[in-house]
Amino acid sequence: MLAFNIYRHWETDLRPITLTALRRLTPEQLHWRPDNFNRSCWDLAVHLCDIEWHWVWRNALRKEAWETAWDPGRFTDLDQLLEYWNRIHRATVEWLRDTPVSHLNQKLPMPYTDFPYATMNWIIYHVMEQEIHHRGQIFMLMRLQGINPPELQRSIFQPPA
User: Which domains does the chain have, with CATH numbers?
Assistant: First the structure.
């Protein structure tokens, strides 16, 4: 069995709903932030891209050197951010489609002295968990602006074929 079979909902349900929510927003709505809340939908989207970039792209797949720094200022608009995030996510999904489940718990070295290794299982779960958490914040910010977030897809409740 391939790792994609375990994490397929990230590709088929979770990510599409996240992207649908972000694409519903105008630039003004995307950058709006209520008083006493430290992030806008834009900030959360950049953060989500950053999380997958750090943990999967850079740390696990080593598509860039560990010394490479994240530069959130390189994105000027949502299309540019989503194009870059899609490139990162395509590499993640390709890895999941090509990797047997038995490889998910192999230790991968990490560039942190207090966190010297992680398994891809932990990394994928962590990145997905972050997306679910921050997507909830995006939905809340949408509702505070009078915008209905997308509905969750029912396919997540169906067993794999």
Answer: 3-153 (1.20.120.450)
